[in-house]
Amino acid sequence: MGGLQIPLEHVQVLAALLFSCGFLGLMLRRNIIFMLMSLEVMLNAAALAFVAAGARWGQADGQIIFLLILAVAAAEISVGLGLVLQIQRRFKTLDMDTANRLRG
Amino acid sequence: MNTLSLIPALPLFSAILLMVSAGRLPKQISAILGVGSVGLSALCVAMVAMGFMADGQVREITLWTWIAIEDFTPAIAFYVDGLTIVMMSVITGVGFLIHLYSVEFMASDESFSRYFAYMNLFVAAMLLLVMADNLLLLYMGWEGVGVCSYLLVGFWYRDPDNGQAARKAFVVTRVGDTAMALGLFLLFTELGTLDIQPLMAAANSQWQVGGTLPVLATALLLGGALGKSAQLPLHTWLPDAMAGPTPVSALIHAATMVTAGVYLIARTHELFLLAPATLEAVAWLGLATLLLAAFAALAQNDIKRILAYSTISQIGYMFLALGVGAFSAGIFHLMTHAFFKALLFLAAGAVIHCLHHEHNIFRMGGLRTRLPVVFASFLIGSAALAALPFTSGFYSKDSILLAAWSLPDIGPTLWAGGLLGALLTAIYSFRLVFVVFFGEANTEPDKQAGWKMAVPLIILCVLAAAGGWISQPLDDVFPAQGHDVVHVIEYIGIAVPLIGLLLAYLLFLGKQLSLSSLTESSMGKALQDFWLKGWRIDDLYHNLLVRPFTGFARLCRNEPVDLFYNSIAGALRWSHRSLSSIQTGELRWYATSMVFGLIVLVAIMLRNAS
To answer: Is the pTM for the entire model greater than 0.80?
Structure first.
C-alpha cells in the first residue's frame, strides 16, 4: 500500500455522482446512443464503487466483480448496438420516443 | 343382411370423410364421393327391395344396444317392411338423381364439398329415420334431418336473410318436435317400450278405441308431424326455407324430409286407429292446409315460393288421405309427389341457373323454345301436379279423393274440399307454366343445362309420367280398405283438373278472360296481397308470439343476478383499462419507473435493517 490514501467516502461520493449523471442521462436523452452511453456510465460507477471497496478492505472480490461488470458491459453494448442498427433501419431515426408501438 | 346396414352407413361415411377433409379435396373427388355414396346406397336398396319382392319377409337387424338403463334398452336396429322399402327407394333413388344434378348446379360454388357433406349427412339421417326399429332411433333421424335442413337452408350464410330463414325453419319445427318428444315420453311411461312393433301390440291390447290416452299420445305425435311436414299451424317455415340452394329444396323440402310427418303417422297408424278423434283432426288439418296453401300459391311471384306452397298443399292431401284411413293412398301420393315435385324443383332450378338467379316469374317468359328440356320437364311435372289423366299424380290424388268420398258423414265435405284444391292446383301450376314458358321473352338464358342436369330431369320425367303404375308392397303393412268405385265421382275427379287447366289457359295465355277488373279493385288488391303474404300468418305469429317474447326477454335482461355478474365484469374491465394506460411504450419512462421502484425497495430494506 503506502502513498496517499483516498478516503473510501470520497470515492463512494464520486461513484454516486457518476451513477446519478448516468441515470439523468438515461432519463433525459432521447437519442438511443446517448442512452447506451449513460448506461455505460452507470455500470462504471458501480464498478468504481466495487474497486474502491475492494481496495479498502484489501480483498480481491472487488476486482473480480469489476471484471464481471466489464464482461456484462461488453455483452450489453454489443446487443445494444445491434438494436441501434435495427431501430435506425426500421424507424429512420434514433429517437426512442418514436418506437412506442408497445403502448397498451 | 349386411346390405341393410350399408344403406345408411355409406352416405354417413362419405359425409364424415367430406367434413374431415374440410374442403381440401378437389371438387371432382368430392363429387364422386357425394354422388357415388348415395348411388351405391340406392343399389343396396334395390338389392334389398328385390329380395323383399321375392319372399315378402320383413327384414330385421339389430346392430348393437344403444342405451341400457334398467328396462329402457333401445337398440340401433333396423326394421324393413314394405313401407320402409318404398321410403328408402324414394330417398336414395330421387336423392341420387338430385345429387347428380347438384354436381352441375353447384359447380361454381366455393363450398362445393361442404354442400355434399351436408347432403350426404341428410340422406343418412333420413334413412335412419325410415329404417329405425324403435321410436327413439326414429327421433334421432328426425332431429338429424332437422339439423341438415337448418344447415342447408342457411347454406349461403353470408346473407343474413338466409340465416334468418334457417333459424325460422329450425325453431318452428322444434315446436312440433317438442310435442313429439312429450308423446314419446308418454308412450314409454304408459306402455313401457319404444320398439315400434311391440309398442303397437301393447297399445292394441291395453288401450280402448277412443280412450283419452291414445288421443293424447297421437295428438302429441301429430304435433311433431305437423311441424316437420309444414302443415297448419306450423307451416310458416317452408316458404322461407326456399332460401337454400334449389336442389336442397327438391330433396329436403319437397321429396323427403317434409314427408317424414306422413311417414310417422303411417308407421304408427295402429295408434292413430285407436284415436278416431285425432285421425279426424288429421283429415281436417290436411284439408285446411291444402286449401290455404293452394290459395297462397295462386298469388306468389317467386317461382320457388309457388312450388313451396304447392308442396304444403300436396302434403295436405297426404294428411287428408291418412285422416280418412287411406294410408296406402297417402304413401302412394307421397311417392308420386316425390317424383313430380323433385322434377318441378329441379326444372325450376335449371331455369334459375340458366337465367342468372332470376326468381320472379314475370321477368321470365318465352322459355319454351330456349330451354326445351326444361320446358318438357316442367310440362310433365305440372301435369302430374295438377293430376291430369294418366300422369302419376292423377292416380294417387284420385285414390285419395275416392277414399275421402267413401267415408261416412264428413266424407263428402272432405271430398269437395279436396276437389276445390285440385282445381286450384291445376290453375296455379299451369299459371306457372304459361307465364314462364310462353309469351314474350323478358330475359335471355345465358347458358344451357348440361347433361348432369338433363339426365336427372329426363329420368324424373319418366317417373312423374308413369309412376302411377308402380305398385307398392304395402298390403301387409296397412289394413285393407275396400270401397266401391263410384263412376260419377271418378269422372268429376278427371274433369276438375281439366277445367282448371282450361281456366289457366283462358286467364294467362289466351287472355280471353281478364283478371284486371278483379285485381284493380281495392278488394282484389287487398286479397292478392293477403295471399301473397301467405294469409298473413307470419304477421300473426310475429305479433302474437315473437314480440311478447322479445319484450319479456328485454324485461329480464337487467335482473339482479345478472347485475351482480355484470358488475364483476365491469370492475375487471375498468382495472384492465387503467392498467393498460400505464403501458406507454416509451423506454425511458419504463427505465425511470424501474429505478424509482428500486429506490423505494432499497429505502424499505435500509429502514428494516436499521
So the answer is: no
